[in-house]
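Narrative summary of target 7.
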Amino acid sequence: MELGQISMELVQAPADAPLPETPPGLGAVHHVGITVTDLERSVQWYAEHLGMVQWMKETFPGGRTAGIMRPGTQIYLGLTQHDAGVDEAFAPHRTGLDHLTFAASTREELHAWRAHLMARGVKCSDVHEYAAPLPFALFTFNDPDGVALEIFHLAV
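Modeled conformation, tokenized:
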């Protein structure tokens, strides 16, 4: 994801705006599924670069999935290789996943992750720092299939 010149502002709904009626819950995202072209390569990449471990595997008609997670966190991903998959590069402008963002607890952690990835040959953007609409910093990189990934720190 190329940042270039961006314009960002906080948007707040009016305090008296009615919310749609829904059941309770949905307090977090459980996992994100990513389609990959080579399941073993992707499992290995996420393990080596992001410290994830495989906790599950599934075979289904037309493909297979590896469930991976980062121990000690609530980060779970599903990596799926479809037999009928098309060997085309990831593109954030197509309908579907634009990018996936991981949270860093501190700016130091953000910079440590960038140094870690760069030392392993992962091409990363510079750390971009912003003061408005909220103080935050981020950098971007890609997985082996070109899926756009980001590590983000919000300083509030």
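Residues 142 and 148 are 5 Å apart (CA to CA).
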